[in-house]
Amino acid sequence: MGHEDGSQSAYDAVETGDELVSWSRAYCRRAASDYDFDVDLHRVEWEVSTRAKRRAAAVKTPTVDDATVGEPKQWDSASSHSNRLGGPPTCTMSLSWRAFESFDRGEWAATLRHELVHVEQFQAFGATDHGPAFKRRAEAVDAPVRVRRFAEPKYVLTCEDCGADVAYRYRECKLVRESAAYRSACCEAPLDCRKQEG
Ligand SMILES: [Zn+2]
Ligand SMILES: [Zn+2]
Fold first, then answer.
1. Tag placement on the chain: N or C end, fewer CB within 10 Å?
2. Could you please report the per-residue DSSP string of 32-98?
C-alpha cells in the first residue's frame, strides 16, 4: 500500500523525504482531477528541503520572458527550457520537511492545492503571483491564499488562572483536544487552548 493512496494512515506513516514526495505526488494527482486543475504533472519535478525555511512549500519556476498572469502563453517547441516539444517548461515543487512535520494532513493537502494553483498559472501564463486571479482560483479549490508560516504553532495552551503560555502544539493531539483535563505547572489550573488563525 505504501504512501500512494493519500489516506490518513499513509500520511501518518511518512518517515522520509522520498515518502513525503510519494504521498504528495499521489495527492496532487487525485486533487488535479477532483478539483479540475488544468495542470500537466509530468512537467513537475519534486524535491524536499530540509533546510530551516519558513515557507511550507514553493514552486520554483524558470524565468519566462514577456510572461504575465492572465495572458495565455503560446509554448512553442523553440522554448529553451522545455525538454518536450510544445509545452511549458518544467517547474519544481519544493516541499519543506519541517512544515510537513508541523502540519496535519488537511493543512498539508491545502498547502499542496495552493502550490497547484501556482503550477496551473505558470503552465498557462509562464508567470504566477498571489494576485486577484490567484485568490479566486485558490478559493475555488479550497486552498489558502497565504500558506501559514509553519514556524507559528497552530495551538497555544494557556493557564486558565494566570494566563501564561504553557505549551505550543503544531498539530492537533490529545493535549489540544482535552486541554481542560490537564493542569498547568504554575497554578495547577486547567488549560485553555487557543487555535491560531492562519
Ligand atoms: Zn503561494
Ligand atoms: Zn498559571
1. N
2. HHHTT----GGGEEEEEE-S--S-SEEEE----TT--TTS-----TT-TT-SSTTSPPPEEEEEEHH
What per-residue confidence (pLDDT) applies to 10? 87
Express as a percent the part of the chain with pLDDT over 90.
58
User: How far is Cα 8 from Cα 106, in angstroms, rounded to an integer?
Assistant: 9
CB contact at 8 A, 87 and 43 = yes
Q: Where are the domains of the chain?
A: 8-140, 155-195
| 104 CA distance to ligand 1 middle (Å) | 19
Neighbours of 97 (CB within 10 A): 16
Beta bridge partners of 155: 169, 195
DSSP, collapsed to helix, strand or coil, labels residue 140 as helix
Nearest by Cα to 37 from 143, 132, 129: 143
Q: SS3 helix, strand, coil % of the chain, rounded to 5?
A: 35, 15, 50
Within a 10 A sphere around the Cβ of 10, how many other Cβ atoms? Answer: 19
Of all ligands present, the nearest one to the C-alpha of 113 is 1
Task: Starting from the CA of residue 56, give the closest ligand.
Answer: 1
Question: Does the domain made of 8-140 have the CATH classification 3.30.2010.10?
Answer: yes
- Closest ligand to C-alpha of residue 161 is 2
